[in-house]
């Protein structure tokens, strides 16, 4: 059954559907020898190429990585810094699901399933993400309540969040939005700038006993749970 070209490319490991659209717009894709356009329908019988190289649907793979500090969340870095994909010698081309700042540590998913990545990153699905932030001093209950209700940022108020003290100088925040550097900005807005940030959970998954730089492939049951999330 024919599918839209961006969806097909996402299933070949090119990236998310949004990333596939950019590749198509850049004129890098051909279908049966002709330049492809957004909205083109293809099937596995078609000769689809990116930069002149044939691509084909890959078996889906989802990996959970404990991202270390000092690593950028991208497939490649023009400055030559280590990237998250350097830690996962997978047989297929993986890309990260969303982003963590270079200095933020913790749980990051990588996959070659563009449709799943799009679903997890789309705001309407409200995927839960839990962070533990180290701050200089314990926020008082009024500050924690402000964070729970939502704080005003330069791009609008944040949605209600789950917030609790997780230890001396540590605040655990669970959000379902995906704004850029959101947790850092939330804590700065209430006078408690982040000194270190760690993502401890994502979409119901936790790191378990994985150390920084270690990874594991998700089980079939975990992948199905992600699709249902």
Key structural traits:
Alpha-Beta Plaits; 17 strands; 3 domains; nine-stranded mixed beta sheet; 28% strand; four-stranded antiparallel beta sheet; 229 residues; Structural Genomics Hypothetical 15.5 Kd Protein In mrcA-pckA Intergenic Region, Chain A; alpha+beta
Descriptive overview:
The structure is a single chain. This protein is an alpha+beta fold. It folds into three domains: 3-54, Structural Genomics Hypothetical 15.5 Kd Protein In mrcA-pckA Intergenic Region, Chain A, CATH 3.10.290; 62-123 and 205-228, Alpha-Beta Plaits, CATH 3.30.70; 128-202, Alpha-Beta Plaits (2-Layer Sandwich), CATH 3.30.70. The protein is built from six helices and 17 strands. It has helices spanning 5-10, 17-25, 114-121, 141-149, 182-189, 220-228, and strands at residues 3-4, 29-31, 34-35, 41-42, 48-50, 53-54, 62-67, 95-96, 105-111, 129-134, 152-153, 156-157, 162-167, 170-175, 196-202, 205-206, 215-217. A hairpin with a 2-residue loop joins β11 and β12 (156-157). The longest helix has 9 residues, at 17-25. The radius of gyration is 20 Å and the shape is elongated.
Helix residue percentage: 10-25%
Instruction: Provide the residue-averaged pLDDT.
Output: 93
Give the percentage of residues in beta strands.
Answer: 25-35%
CATH class of the largest domain: Alpha Beta
* Counted beta strands: 17
The biggest beta sheet reads:
9 strands, mixed
> What is the global morphology?
elongated
Total helical segments: 6
Radius of gyration: 20 Å
Low-confidence stretches: none
In short:
With 229 residues, this protein is α+β, with helices and mostly antiparallel strands. Helix content is 21%, strand content 28%. It has 3 domains: 3-54, RNA-binding S4 domain (Structural Genomics Hypothetical 15.5 Kd Protein In mrcA-pckA Intergenic Region, Chain A), CATH 3.10.290.10; 62-123 and 205-228, Pseudouridine synthase I, catalytic domain, N-terminal subdomain (Alpha-Beta Plaits, 2-Layer Sandwich); 128-202, 2-Layer Sandwich (Alpha-Beta Plaits), CATH 3.30.70.
């Amino acid at each position: 059954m024919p599918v839209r070209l961006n969806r097909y490319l996402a299933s070949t490991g090119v990236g998310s559907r949004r990333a596939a659209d950019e590749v198509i717009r850049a004129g890098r894709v051909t279908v049966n020898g002709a330049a492809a356009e957004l909205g083109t329908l293809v099937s596995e019988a078609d000769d689809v190429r990116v930069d002149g190289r044939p691509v084909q649907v890959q078996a889906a793979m989802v990996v959970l990585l404990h991202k270390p500090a000092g690593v950028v969340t991208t497939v490649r870095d023009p400055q030559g810094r280590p990237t998250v994909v350097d830690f996962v010698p997978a047989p297929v081309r993986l890309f990260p699901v969303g982003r963590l700042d270079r200095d933020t540590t913790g749980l990051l998913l990588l996959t070659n399933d563009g449709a799943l990545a799009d679903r997890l990153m789309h705001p309407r699905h409200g995927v839960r993400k839990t962070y533990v932030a180290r701050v200089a001093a314990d926020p008082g209950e009024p500050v924690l309540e402000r964070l729970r209700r939502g704080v005003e940022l330069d791009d609008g108020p944040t949605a209600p969040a789950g917030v609790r003290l997780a230890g001396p100088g540590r605040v655990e925040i669970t959000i379902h939005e995906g704004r850029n550097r959101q947790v850092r900005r939330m804590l700065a807005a209430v006078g408690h700038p982040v000194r270190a940030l760690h993502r401890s959970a994502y979409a119901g998954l936790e790191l378990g006993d994985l150390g920084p730089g270690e990874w594991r492939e998700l089980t079939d049951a975990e992948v199905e749970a992600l699709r249902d999330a």
